[in-house]
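ARCHIVE CARD
SHELF: 3
SLOT: left
DATA:
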Amino acid sequence: MWMHFNRKATALAITVVLLAGGAAYYAVRASHRADATPADGDVAETAHAFLADWQAGDLDKAARLTTRPAQARKELSDFRDQTGVTSVKLSAAHLDSASVAFRTTAHIDYLGTKATWSYTSHLTVVNDPAEHEPRVSWHSNVIHPDLPDGGGYTLQPFAAQSTPTVTDQHGVPLTSREHPGLEQVLNQLRDRYSASTGEEMKIRLSSAGDSGGGRVIATVRQGKTGRLRTKLDAGVQKAVDRAATKRPGVSVVVIRPSTGDVLAAYTTGTDFDPALEGVQAPGQAFELVTAAALLEHHKVTTRSAVGCPASSTVDGTAFTNPDGRQATDASFAEVFAHTCDTGFARLADRLSGQDLSSEAREVFGLGQDWQTGVTTADGAVPVLDGADKAAAAIGRGEIRLNTLNLASLTATVQSGSFRQPLFVDPKISGKAPALAHRTLPDGVAGDMRALMRAYATATGAKGAAFGGVADQFADSDQPIIGWFTAFQGDLAVAATAPEQAHQPETAESVVRAILDATG
């Protein structure tokens, strides 16, 4: 039995009910005046009949209860098919004259992502002069209040990953606004690990010409607000930011040697991150690896007299020292302390190409597939012979490194074993870190640390250090790049920077400032 309403009634709470055998049937009164506003009873009956048919999925029948059946049928079908609606529950909530407010609860399944969307809409019942029956005045906003009238628009769902909040290892949030030199790393982390924080679903209002765009009108499923904890350290990052700010072209990486954790990174790159992804000939900085290979293969000791000639010729290729240095009776420790290219080029003849390449790969982890948690280039040290091998020994020719690689080399010397750099825990990335085949023998590791301390003493640097320069192409806008690295306690720092002369002064000053601030 129908409830009857008078015009003063303002509240209505009748929910359309589906019977087990099909939709409830509501008869629409046929006797009334065509030129009058429908009576409250007619409004209620018509509205409920329309809502019941729509809820039951009988869109043809629902459309026939409107003033524009063809358009209503199309738009109701579009709502079901293009919005991914699997079912709707429609509940009349309020009657005001000929207007009925109703609550829509739509269940959506979009490419396997399910959500429930609830909102309030309105319909108006009028006397149709052509049919002489009460009908729902059809407008697109009967389906949703944001739908423009006249068709041509659809409500389209789309799934999006929630953007996680990236934090340091202590839970401190990291932002590119506070740490601009970390922007590319943070962008990568947010993009790469957004799926781990949960998928959200939104609804956008799209027209035929939007090509998948359009205004978002609702979020129907909230993604989990995630926090991505990294290995970074906000305190160390601040020290790096302060040291590197206003140093155009500088790149910095800080690693904890005992764990491989990347505590901080800085770059001024825009299209890609040169500190991590770029590679170039490192020049004298690679003599760290060459020295370790010579010591491990017993080709020299730190006290061996090897000399630092003004020039050295290998297979017809002449090598000179950028600063013109020479010392005929220099020991290997002195050759290392003064980054004597001619001495190292000549000593390369004592190693096979395989010796140098294996030292780089099997001890220092270069050229392996590093799984750091972000995109990185992991160095390249091919097997070479003759003059190419001599060039490789002093970081020229086909040797390729970046700032991250250099920091890792120093961390390996400090700890005696390679621990692959990590921006996130392998449990988060789902990738096992690369492993070295062997550690530095204790005696070699001790000699390398002593050599780096001697370099620091000779240059006035702090802790244990090493550095040099690499000449780029003559027409480069940065023809000289300084490479400098040092360790102090359980921190290994590396920096690269454009230089005005053949000394890594800018790179060294950045590293020195970081160690001063963190020591």
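SLOT: right
DATA:
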Amino acid sequence: MTTDPPACDQEPIRVPGHIQPQGFLLTIDRKSTEVLRASANAGSCTGVDAGDLLGRPLDATGLLPAVLLTDILAHEPQPRLSRTHGIAAFTTGHYLVTSHVSGDERVIECEFIDPAFKGSLDLLYPDMRAAIESLQQDPTPAALFQNTARIVRELTGFDRALVYAFDAQYNGVVVGEDRNDRLPSYFDLRFPASDIPAQARELYRLNRLRLIADAAYAPVPILDREGPGLPPLDLSYAVLRSVSPVHVEYMRNMGTASSFSVSIVVEGRLWGLISAHHAQPRSVPHHVRAACDFLAQIMAMQIEAHTRSSHAAERVERQAVQARLLASMAREEHFVQGLVRHPEDFLSLVDAHGAAVVLNDACHTVGAAPDEAGVAALVAWLAEAHGDRDIYSTDSLAEAYPGMAELAGGEGAVAGLLAVQISQVHRSYVLWFRPEVVRTVRWGGDPRQAKTVSAGRLHPRLSFESWQETVRHRSAPWTEPQLDTAALLRNAIIGIVMRKAEELADLTDELRRSNRELEAFSYSVSHDLRAPFRHIVGYAELLKDELQPKEDAAAAREGAAGAGGRSLRYIDTIIESAHTAGKLVDGLLSFSQAGRVSLAREDVDVDRMVALCRHLLQPELRGRRVEFDVGHLGHVQADPTMLRQVFQNFLSNAIKYTKGREVAKISVSATRTRAATVFKVEDNGVGFDMAYVGKLFGVFQRLHRMEDFEGTGIGLANVRRIAERHGGSAWAEGAVDQGASFFFSIPNRETAENVGA
């Protein structure tokens, strides 16, 4: 119903090549004043043949009085404006002379002044003053529309005057009417956008006045002077411009012999028309047209004032709701909770019935909203079709996104959508939903038959009888204040997110600084403690060696160990504890170095490295049955020293935690993807409870008793740090008494370069 027929949209309505016969037309070159064109009726109107006018300077034609000629040549109108020069008398009567600019030409129009219509703007002033005061006192838009129609009909003497407003799709609705009984009422009837195609609407916007004095007129051709061809003459601003034959037929089908329209332009946009009709041919004198134009501009200002006033009141009301929501979001740890935990304000902010917040693939819904699958489909569609828009709205989701009804909870469940985009990177949206509002509208004739093609020519519909339609799949439209409020909420959310990000960045900087200080401290302490612990072990062993012979002799004399035997046990405990502390210090030193030293990436043969680690761990295999299953591991780009620490830790742990098995089974494998290489070390040892997997890679975290399995609790923390330094990750899987699998990923070269490793 809103699609303009292509043939109508392509009609050359700005360059018709003809004029209406209630006057004649000339064009002159703006520089030389040579007469370039003349309407074919110029001779019959003036007594001077049109052919004698063409090709001559205007002042040489003797056509116009000297006063008018001087005014025309001395004062060129501003672009898009017409200038009135005065009245000229010819053999057929008096004519009003006006001119305007069209390209390189001046268009001079001489419009016949009907002696039956006498008067001037001066005489109309009292009526105009009363009309303006009346319009300014109208309390509602409906009263303004009705009053305007009444005043225009009184001024023009036409049988019917309508105020015609366009909706968002440019369908028109009659919102005000004043008439007698000669023409039928069209009040509250709708007319499809195809009745006034896009190019015609633009012409109405540019030239606010249009008069068709007699729908049965014969168009008068415009003649060009001889010589090089002239471009088509643009008559967009001409009073006498001939109109489309389709529109003339449209008027006849409506039963109107003449029409006069004034455009209502609000903030540069064609808001609607004041359209007057008469059952017989009727003209409207220039001064009355000017008065109606002035009234239309007053009406446009009143409409704008009404709109701004109502919008301002609505914005104030919504700002109170928004303030409560902002306070709620500020109190919560995350802004999403501030919205979904206050559904009444969240929905009333834009008069919605349901809403959803989608953030980082998490979906939160309130009220009458689609399920998560429906919301996810909507977000995917929004990102693909409207990803470049911060705000998107529609009152007919079924029309904008066919097939969405099923995903959105069934037919009519969600008809209107308002979406604000929080982040393009993570597909984060706030969505509001409205249900279908079924309504019945009356059309001026069946809009499905707005135009027909017959005998290769376009024809308008024949009937304008009231035709009812039930409108489905549409919600109440989203208003400008509602859209503005949604935009303000979006800005507030982004501000909250940015503030949180700044706080997190500050905290991250502080943590990094603290970590650097802690690493420096642990490096210094672990490095400085290595020598004292070695000294303790060394001197304890010397003391043991010195006491051993004395203890052996005493034991031989007494036949049993005495107090000296206890001394040796004390020394053994000191040595064992010092060894354990030394290992802990070595682990701390390795952990600190992993975060401090720079990576030295190179091509590493992992098969050879694992073989080397197995060789170094041979002492731990004595007296054990251990079966290794090592697959092909290949090559990776990594720091060889750090990678050796990873495999040595994984293999050492596998050997340690399979100690109770008759046959220990340890496998090493590698899996390659486009992004990374993942290494896996699997054993059949004691395993662990997955409920505690989060503790595995923490510093000094242990899942088993020291008495059962010795260790420092630093090795796996070191593995995770090495993995992160390479841009990869480390993780584990296991089950109690069913073994464990440890994983370590290293990005491939391209990925590693992207993470800046």
